[in-house]
Amino acid sequence: MTTTALPTSAPLDVPINREGIAVVCRGVTKTYGTGQAAVRALRGVDLLIHSGELMMLVGPSGCGKTSLISVIAGVLDRDDGECTVFGEDFAKMKPHQRTAFRGRTIGFVFQAFNLIPTLTIAENVAVPLLINGWSMHKAVQEARGILDQVGIGDRYRDIPARLSGGQQQRVAIARALVHKPRLIVCDEPTSALDHETGERVMDLLKTAAVGKDRSLVVVTHDNRIFQFADRIAKMDDGRVMGIVSDVKEL
Fold first, then answer.
1. Please, what are the domains in the chain?
2. Which residues, in sequence order, are bridge partners of residue 54?
3. Out of 18, 93, 132, 175, which residue is the most buried by the measure of CB atoms under 10 Å away?
4. In the beta sheet, which residues pair with residue 100?
């Protein structure tokens, strides 16, 4: 196992070589609340995520992992610093531009799944395609194919309430994959899955989401899936403390 300290990123006014880089975070901060109730979730995060890699974020609960991926995916606004995805900055986009960019470029697997309770499983998975202008019929057909890949295709007519937590998690993963985004961000994607299913899902995620111009970021406490990572970023107290670049012995 090789762990290296994360070099301090260049100041924000100093350009860096962005060739082959999917995500650039420099000095990213985020605080929730104000005054004595303020919680500093991110305290100057520096992180580069390469195109074509699976990066895992690990660390104790409350260290800022979910806040960081939410900023990267444009779900949460940062307070300060720089964060770009394939050279684009959500902070510089108008609301409709942000929605369109996320719809084309990013898939997000939320820890709470965030499925729409009144839609069928296939309709839930089809949502990113509908946002991108697909017809309902074509989108649902595509969604059924992805549901087959995650092993739950026979439940496509059910609503989320009829599925177990692990099954709902697979639906959430299928929804993140269906529009073939360039960046997929996952918050604990195997937490509700048994070991065999978790490995099958990680195989699917890595095959579908990692390529020459595509990347995958996974927040996890599940050391059983560390083997799938290309690099692991260790977080604590709102910062990235170091990078594990050789995960074979973890």
1. 2-9+19-33+40-246 (3.40.50.300)
2. 216
3. 175
4. none
Pairing between β-strand 2-5 and β-strand 239-246 as defined by DSSP bridges: antiparallel
The torsion defined by the Cα of 67, 14, 211 and 140, in degrees rounded to 10, comes to: 50
187 by DSSP, 3-state: which?
strand
Beta carbons of 61 and 15 less than 8 angstroms apart: no
**Count of other CB atoms within 10 angstroms of residue 2:** 11
Q: How far apart are CA 140 and CA 33, in angstroms?
A: 41
Rounded to 5°, angle at Cα 197 from 210 and 163: 110
113: left (phi over 0), alpha (psi -120 to 50) or beta: left
- The per-residue pLDDT for range 31-73, each reduced to its tens digit, is 999 988 899 999 999 999 999 999 999 999 999 999 999 999 9
